[in-house]
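Title: Prediction job returns without error message
Component: structure pipeline
Severity: low
Priority: P3
Assignee: unassigned

Description:
Job completed but the reporter wants confirmation the result is attached to the right record. Sequence as submitted:
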Amino acid sequence: MRLDDPKFLARLESLYLLARRVIGGSLAADRRSHKKGSGINFADYSEYQYGDDYRNIDWNIYARLETLVIKLFELEEDVSIHIFLDVSHSMQKKIDYAKQIAAAIGYIALCNQDKIIIDTIDDKLNYLIEPCRGKGKVMTLLKSLENITLSGKDTKFNEAIEQFQRRQKQSEVCVVISDFLFPEGYKQGLQKMKYKKNDIYCIQILDEEEMTCNYLGDLEIECIETGKKRKLTIGPNEQLKYNELIRRWNENLYKECSKYEIGYIQAFTSKPFDEIIRDILSKGGLIA
């Protein structure tokens, strides 16, 4: 289904309406600054000092204690939702599904006036959508995602995150949409993102066929990303070893995310994309 299909747009609007009911519209609705100022939500009291805004004086306390104090409020941050979309060749069977997930998150964010940025990742970081906000940017979002093609000769997630850090100016809500099958791993990149005080959410896109090895006998395999070829003999023991290694790889990703308080969800392409978004909403959003 094309991303600009009316039926697909209707599903996106349904998800946004659900987000409004569940978490106030924003997938990052609970993100607030620890700074105190003249925001909306009451945070604390402070003794009045010359130059403070007299409109924040609590006159009820003054009437009881004859002490001037002012109310402090939490400042709402300007939320930026930064989507990192894996477009390497290992995503061949999963890229359309990944685009749908990215479209849903982007649609909800734009309709809620949150700022979004989208980068693609292959062997480097590439701008897809520069910072923008507002429902008027929805079609730009969908067309940009629709036109994505697989690229690169390998997936270098850690190097891509280094590029991101060099240009990052403030902490963001970072959503990584990928199979996380990175030859060089993912720990260094995730740790660097966390060090910069970003709120991170990993959406691991998987295909059922990848979870088990169904090949037997003598064959030549080719790496879908690098093009390198290798001759192998696969028997029942090799099948079991593959199945165990892929299970352990995914389990380690989950443990790494738990260790660093990174949001995580596993999304199989056999499951409708909107069910994944509903699961995220049911947990309170990307950073709840």
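Comment from assignee: result matches the submitted record. The first helix runs from residue 6 to 23.
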